[in-house]
Every structure is written in C-alpha cells, then in structure tokens.
Amino acid sequence: MMMIMQTKTPHRKPASRKELTHERIVEVASRAIRRSGYDGTGVADIMKEAGLTHGGFYAHFESRDALLAEAADRAGMESVALAARVAAAAPPGEAVQAMMQAYLAPEHIAAIETGCPVSALGSEMPRQSPAVRRAATIHIKEMIDVFARQMPDWGQPKAHEQAMALVCALIGTTVMARAVDDPRLSKAMCEATMKQFAPAPQ
User: Fold this and answer.
1) Whole-prediction pTM
2) DSSP state, 61?
3) Contact (Cβ atoms closer than 8 angstroms) between residue 198 and residue 145
C-alpha cells in the first residue's frame, strides 16, 4: 500500500466549473450503469439525474460510449480502492478473509448501485465497446492483484492463480445471491463461499 508522506506540494488550480460538472456526470453515470445496466442507462436520464440539460452532454463527451467508458473506469476504481482499504485495515494475516467478508456482506449484496461493477455488469460487458471493456479489464486485473498481494505465498505463480479463482468465486457468488428471491438461500450461498475459500488462520 502507498504511504502518505507529509511534503509540500504546489497549490493546485481549483477545478473549473466545467471540470466539476464533468465529474458530476461521471459519478451519476457510474451509479446508473450498476443500477440499470449499460443498455438501460440513457444519456437523457443521466443528465437529468445530474441536474443538467440533455443538450449540454456533448460539451463533455464525444459519445455515449465515451461516457460509459469513464463511468466504468470510475466504478472499477471505487471497487478496487475499497478492497485495498479493507486489506490495509485488517490485522496481519487476515486481509484476505476481511476482503471476502466485506465483498459478501449483506450490505454489498444489496448495494448494486454502489458495489462492485463486475458483479453488477459482468454479463453485459462482452457486448460493450472496446473502451468500456478495456476499463473493466484494467480494474479486474487490479482487484486480482489486491488479493494476490495478501496471499501467504505472494510473489509465486500460485498466489496469482489463487487470487484469480477467489475473485471469480466472489463475483459469481454475488451474482447468484442477488439473483434469487430467497434471502435465506442468498445468505447460504455467501456462507458456503466463505467456508470453501476463506484461508486458514496463519
């Protein structure tokens, strides 16, 4: 993890109104794609939710795909950053279990709009533009790396393989747990994955 050092930095120019508006649109879109899917997310709806007119869209983005790519990038960064924070806060040797518990927690299962974009959008990604898929791929790799770095044998090929399998299991479990209409079954799925994949205490 990165350590924050106290150093003097030059004063940054405050963000312009256009930059702030751009960020607001991307933030709204990153929630909207997870909530409604890529195909269910329209430019007009995003602009309305952001408190803006539809006509102002092209002052910020060349196309809908360009917005979706930025939204996918934002959602992926948020998910990876959360996993990294959970790992950093966990006691020594317990980071993998802590990340699993956070990912499979009832709060994350219910939080489609703000949760992991891969578990919310994975089935739609093959049909998206190359830019959207590239953004998703980058953050999937980052998520795997966050898990791999916490494996006991980090640095060995086995750690990366274990991390890939675990991330796939977590995503698949979340998709299934959200799909069923039986809360007890949803909970049982998450508990089963925890039991099968949680590492033994070190």
Assistant:
1) 0.85
2) -
3) no
Topology of domain 64-197 in CATH is: Tetracycline Repressor; domain 2 (1.10.357)
Tokens of 105: 């927690």
- Written as six digits, the tokens of 50 are 């952001």
Give 4-33 pLDDT, tens digit per residue.
333 344 555 666 888 899 999 999 999 999
* 51 sits in which H/E element: none
Exposure of 21 by Cβ count < 10 A (0-12 exposed, 13-18 middle, 19+ buried)? middle
DSSP code for 155: T
- At 187, the amino acid letter reads K
CA separation for the pair 91, 52 (Å, rounded): 45
CA gap 131, 119 in Å, rounded: 19
Alpha-carbon torsion, ordered 179, 180, 184, 185, to 10 deg = -90
Instruction: Give the mean model confidence (pLDDT) for residues 183-199.
Output: 93
